[in-house]
Amino acid sequence: MPDGAGGFRWPNHSPRLAPADCGPGAKFPQTTCATAASGYLAPVTSGSSSTINRRMGIAAVIVAGGVLLSRVLGVLRDIVFAGMLGATGVTDEYVAAFTIPDFMNYLLAGGFLAITFIPIFSRYLADDDEEGGWEALTAVIRPLAVGIVLLVIIGWALAPTVINALFPDFTAEQAAATVRLTRIVLPAQVFFVLGALFTAVQYAKGQFFIPTLAPIIYNLGIIGGGILYALFTGEPDPEGFIWGAVIGAFIGNFALQWWGARRLGMHLIWRLPWRNPVILEYVKIAFPLMIGQSVVVLDETFMRMFGNMSGEGVQTQLQYARRTMLVPVGVIAQAAGVAAYPFLARQFAEGKLVQMANTVDRALRWVLALSLAAAALLVALSIPTVRVLFERFEFNPADTEATASALFFYAFAIPVWGALMVITRAFYTRRQMWTPVIVGTAAALLAVPLYFALQREFAIEGVALASTLALGAYTLTLAILWYREPNHSHRWRRVLDPAARAVPLAVFGGGAAYLVAAGIQSALPTGFFSALLAVLLGTATFAAVALGLGSLLSRRFAPT
Questions:
Q1: What pairs with residue 87 in β-bridges?
Q2: The dihedral sign for the CA sequence 68, 74, 75, 79
Q3: CB 317 within 8 A of CB 402
Q4: φ, ψ (nearest 5 deg) of residue 392
Q5: 375 contact partners, CB below 8 Å, separation of at least 6
Q6: How many CB atoms lie within 10 A of CB 54?
Q7: CB count, 10 Å around CB of 179?
Q8: No. of helices (H) and no. of strands (E), the chain
Q9: What are the backbone dihedrals phi and psi of residue 439, each rounded to the nearest 5 degrees, phi first?
Q10: Measured between alpha carbons, how far is 348 from 371 in angstroms, rounded to an integer?
Q11: How far apart are CA 290 and CA 255, in angstroms?
Q12: Residue 76: how many CA atoms within 13 Å on its side-chain side?
């Protein structure tokens, strides 16, 4: 069913094909029948706004549930790691070992592969040419596989040089250990890259469940690797967690996603010639996204570099704080971004620019309202939250205080991250890939002196504050560029008015939560149970105050 605007159709569930529709000489190709046999469908029309909202909501719930579970497991992973190894020079080696792999991941698999390939593959589905879609997948996956293998080899060879350059304060022993761990985990990037394409196929087919399992299995692999290594050797070591990451990446990100795509009819056509026009189309879209993703990863690289300059263990403390902050970011913002993107793309392809802008506004309103609440709650409960999550065994009260101080400033970035994930996808939808890249590059360059100044003045708190300010400048600039265009400027109030109404709810709710938590911790002995009680009652107080105040204000200002 060709798209009238020349764009692509976003797949959704449709009725199964009848048996008579398939088989030799039938009107449907075998690939279509294979797909239909699993209950998955052919492309559908975009439908009304209410239909789109409902579908987007369902997709968001699925993604949010998966993200929540994966983030919870990510926190559990950090709890296990902190309990077994604490926050020391050894743990800094583990964190630093992911610098090169993470850069590759963001560059080649950190979301851009799906964003790039979904519209290409969906166009073939819209033209009822599923076989052409598999040919396009084959054309793209072969050079990518070769490229990532070469990058892994180069990374393996250059690891000593890169580690010594990025972490000059490491001792020779620390640098050598970091290089060894880096080389172990590097092959996992092959699984991430290939698995990302298999994930893109599932998204294009309207399937979100199996892709959500990838980070869950990955985190379980890391946890299991660390525990099993300690049980077999009698001593915990970062190497166990590293091997767990490799195994988790293979099972969750590669093998499972390959199976998920295969059950939707995926097959690779290796006999195709290597020259294919779809490769050029893919590169034109992907290249700016590759650059943009490399800019994003600089935030985490800066965290490691300047954290290492702040003292032993600080890099690890910053990572715990940042990952804790990213839990609500993933559940709220990532779910909204992943769910909204295909619908935005469809609306743009159909020329429904006003409807697309409305979708962006709607996503931003929800993201900002929920993110402000999450930020206020995490600011108010930073100390008991860190104590509950990490303070045990080798992770001592001093580590808790330092990590909580970083989390306090990181928490203010939650609404910023939320807005960024929606706005960048709005630009991607319109194929304005270079706008986020240019703005992000400028923000990253300007952030360097900011990191230097704030780290020198405030140590660990300065690193977290610099990250939040740099990200805020990046997001604000993109928002201004988006809303200053024709037919967009009047939409500021649609987003800011609901956000402004959410601010007092977040402030008063957060203040009440802080007072309750502080009272509990001062009245009871410091420890896990008092911190847990503070978190639970603080959260309940926040909800009661925010909801009560919201209900009061809605009645006070309701039209009469």
A1: none
A2: positive
A3: yes
A4: -170, 155
A5: 328, 411, 412, 413, 414, 415, 506
A6: 12
A7: 21
A8: 22, 0
A9: -65, -45
A10: 27
A11: 24
A12: 16
Residues 460/306, Cβ–Cβ less than 8 Å: no
Please compute Rg for the chain using Cα positions. 24
In the numeric block, the tokens 């893919």 are attached to: 282
> What type of residue sits at position 540?
A
Four-residue CA torsion sign, 348, 353, 355, 358: positive
Six token digits for residue 487: 């037919």
Which residue, among 267, 274, 271, 276, has the nearest Cα to 29 in the 3D structure? Answer: 267
The encoded tokens of residue 264 equal 């939707």
Contact call for residues 379 and 537 (beta carbons, < 8 A): no
* 53-110 per-position pLDDT tens digit: 666 667 777 888 888 888 788 878 888 888 888 877 788 888 889 888 877 776 664 5
pLDDT digits (tens, 9 = 90+) for 327-369: 899 888 878 887 777 677 667 767 778 888 888 888 898 899 9
SS3 sequence, 198-262? Answer: HHHHHHHCCCCHHHHHHHHHHHHHHHHHHHHHHHHHCCCCHHHHHHHHHHHHHHHHHHHHHHHHH
> Which pair of structure tokens corresponds to residue 332?
């709220």
Please provide the distance, in angstroms rounded to a whole number, between the alpha carbons at the two ends of the chain. Answer: 50
Helix (H, G, I), strand (E, B) or coil at 150: helix
Instruction: Determine if the pTM surpasses 0.85.
Output: no
